């Protein structure tokens, strides 16, 4: 590592060195103590700057060359639509049942049940914005909007547009909307502020892209907004304000300090030097519809959630040695209390290469 012209540490090493490190230390070291590897030389006023190519594109090419049969996993899964309908109906049943309970059950049920259902809808919405339910792009967008009925927030289409940028410009400053802002790096410091960051994570997660790289709303976003206004109005009129409050509170909890929301931290925050994407392997994948298979997802974003575990089974030699998370609650605690972790704990690349040319 060396100081660049801006006085920031810059890393000229390649991520492939991680493989040699694993060979020397043994694979189990990272798997058993992923939180013990955060203490390495790093910037705390900016991200970890590296000059390597996007690793998922490299691994995708290698896997396709060695395992062309993996293409059988590509394409939409219509069962996601039926699952989405079922979860929305379940959410509305919960709205009707829990919105009339006492305040304690109201809060507990929204955190323990409503948030889980809302987060499952978020995971499905993620798949629909990759157009992995129907062959038709339009049907996928309309279905994503329908899922928002079970969340009370018109987020589907806007999320899809910014999430597409996250894949296209992964870890490129000012282009990847998933990267924290400089304001976050400067101000989200210490356990208390990081706790507050996690508490208000839905606001950071939803509003950050609009400040970093604002996009002009399109017709589907307007349709999304109108549809949710109508849906929320009907809930308010026919089920009551407490019902609408329970729904929105559930969605907020699902992306706030909640174990299932920890994937927003574990996916790309640099817990191990030079490794920029992490899996979660555990029982929560059942509830978040395999969002934990995040490395496989970035390698093959055209594979639906239901088939992501098969990627590792087809090409285990590319994934078995990679470190992974096994406990979302511990990941949240590590982020809050580990002084070596913060918004600066992300890898960024210096250059954007399109068609082999540096931009």
UniProtKB/TrEMBL annotation:
Q: Does the keyword Transmembrane helix apply?
A: yes
Q: Which residues form the Sphingolipid delta4-desaturase N-terminal domain?
A: 42-80
Identify the GO cellular component terms for this protein: membrane
Q: Name one GO molecular function term.
A: sphingolipid delta-4 desaturase activity
Where exactly are the transmembrane stretches of this chain?
Answer: 78-98, 104-121, 192-210, 222-239, 245-265, 277-295, 328-348
One Pfam annotation reads: Lipid_DES
Record keywords, A-Z: Membrane, Transmembrane, Transmembrane helix
- Protein name per Swiss-Prot or TrEMBL: Sphingolipid delta4-desaturase N-terminal domain-containing protein
The organism is: Paramecium primaurelia
């Amino acid at each position: 590592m060396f100081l660049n012209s801006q006085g920031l540490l810059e890393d000229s090493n390649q991520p492939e060195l991680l493989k040699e490190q694993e060979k020397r230390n043994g694979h189990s070291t990272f798997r058993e103590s992923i939180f013990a590897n955060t203490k390495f030389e790093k910037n705390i006023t900016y991200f970890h700057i590296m000059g390597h190519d996007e690793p998922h594109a490299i691994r995708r090419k290698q896997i396709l060359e060695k395992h062309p049969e993996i293409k059988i996993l590509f394409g939409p899964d219509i069962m996601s639509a039926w699952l989405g309908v079922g979860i929305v109906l379940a959410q509305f049943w919960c709205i009707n049942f829990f919105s009339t309970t006492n305040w304690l059950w109201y809060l507990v049920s929204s955190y323990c049940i409503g948030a889980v259902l809302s987060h499952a809808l978020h995971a499905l919405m993620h798949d629909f914005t990759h157009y992995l339910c129907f062959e038709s792009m339009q049907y996928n967008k309309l279905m994503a909007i329908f899922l928002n009925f079970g969340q009370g927030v018109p987020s589907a289409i806007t999320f899809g547009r910014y999430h597409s940028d996250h894949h296209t410009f992964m870890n490129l400053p000012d282009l990847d909307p998933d990267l924290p802002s400089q304001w976050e790096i400067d101000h989200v410091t210490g356990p208390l502020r990081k706790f507050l960051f996690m508490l208000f994570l839905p606001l950071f997660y939803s509003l950050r892209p609009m400040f970093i790289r604002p996009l002009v709303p399109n017709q589907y976003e307007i349709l999304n907004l109108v549809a949710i206004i109508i849906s929320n109005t009907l809930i308010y009129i026919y089920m009551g304000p407490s019902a609408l409050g329970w729904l929105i509170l559930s969605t907020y909890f699902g992306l706030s300090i909640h174990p299932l929301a920890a994937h927003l931290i574990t996916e790309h925050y640099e817990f191990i030097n030079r490794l920029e994407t992490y899996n979660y392997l555990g029982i929560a994948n059942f509830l978040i519809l395999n969002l934990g298979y995040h490395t496989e997802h970035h390698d093959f974003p055209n594979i639906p959630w239901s088939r992501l575990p098969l990627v590792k089974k087809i090409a285990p030699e590319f994934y078995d040695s990679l470190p992974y998370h096994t406990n979302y609650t511990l990941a949240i605690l590590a982020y809050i209390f580990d002084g070596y972790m913060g918004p600066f704990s992300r890898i960024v690349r210096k250059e954007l290469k399109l068609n082999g040319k540096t931009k």
